[in-house]
């Protein structure tokens, strides 16, 4: 019971006791009689009721505010959000903090998991507007973050806008050459070769200055150039490009090595050791195994059946 309610109860009891005392005919001191008369009047009782009601209203409002404060959920930290098992809830809560650089990378990773390329691109555009250490790190390593969606065919315009924002010249030309088929002459060393290929001029391509690819774009361009050179029968240049890849195109490297006669290479010496197993297919039947097909072609080459041997190797390259 609140103090106001207790006061009201005690006060009303006091008035009732006075009434009993008055009813018995006992005289009251003048000052007490005056208080009793004022307190007993309807106006005074009305004021008391109004005061009491106002106190009730304040108490109710105070109680309601206190209840709301008590039930207000605790705001989760970013670490706590990232630990949530419900992926949808996690994504929703992080999206509410998109204006904070701390949340952009976790949100980017969530979008990456779901292959939401358009949203990933928008995140990197937003990062460009921030000026802080974390944002500068992402900007410096931007090529790491675009690899996931750089081959996306559904968002060419968004890709081009992003690459222009970060001044990624190789990536800009990649979109124009390979996705939009906009073949423009360029001074870019990498895409000069693509331009020559697109113009049908393989003789003008110099691959001697090409180094091991450091970016996805370089890898894509080198592979494209090698395949186009193979189509044009320029096996030396194609092999030079494939040799820039340490752990890819091993069969293609071997085939090109046989076609170009580079028998001093490590890949050829390794092949000779494997060739000893050729006895597994003594009747020279078509096996369907690519390595066995190469073995057959090499055997025919050493039997001076050059046209058939070469035909097998070229067909394998173009598959």
Description of the molecule:
With 319 residues, the protein is an all-alpha fold. Among the domains are: 4-55, no CATH class; 78-167; 260-318, no CATH class. Helix content is 67%, strand content 0%. It has 18 helices and no strands. The chain has helices at 3-23, 30-40, 42-71, 78-82, 87-95, 101-113, 117-127, 133-140, 142-146, 156-165, 169-179, 189-198, 216-231, 235-242, 250-260, 266-275, 290-302, 306-317. Helix 10 (156-165) runs antiparallel to helix 11. The longest helix is centred in the first third of the chain and has 30 residues, at 42-71. The termini are far apart. The model has no long low-confidence stretch (mean pLDDT 82).
Radius of gyration from the alpha-carbon trace, in angstroms: 43 Å
Provide mean pLDDT, rounded: 82
Structural class estimated from helices and strands: mainly alpha
Distance between the termini: 91 Å
Beta content = under 5%
Q: SSE order, as H and E?
A: HHHHHHHHHHHHHHHHHH
Q: How large is the count of helical segments?
A: 18
Biggest sheet record? none
**Low-pLDDT runs:** none
Question: What is the number of beta strands?
Answer: 0
The geometry reads as elongated
As a percent range, the share of helical residues equals: 55-70%
Spell out the blueprint of helices and strands.
Elements: H1 3-23, H2 30-40, H3 42-71, H4 78-82, H5 87-95, H6 101-113, H7 117-127, H8 133-140, H9 142-146, H10 156-165, H11 169-179, H12 189-198, H13 216-231, H14 235-242, H15 250-260, H16 266-275, H17 290-302, H18 306-317
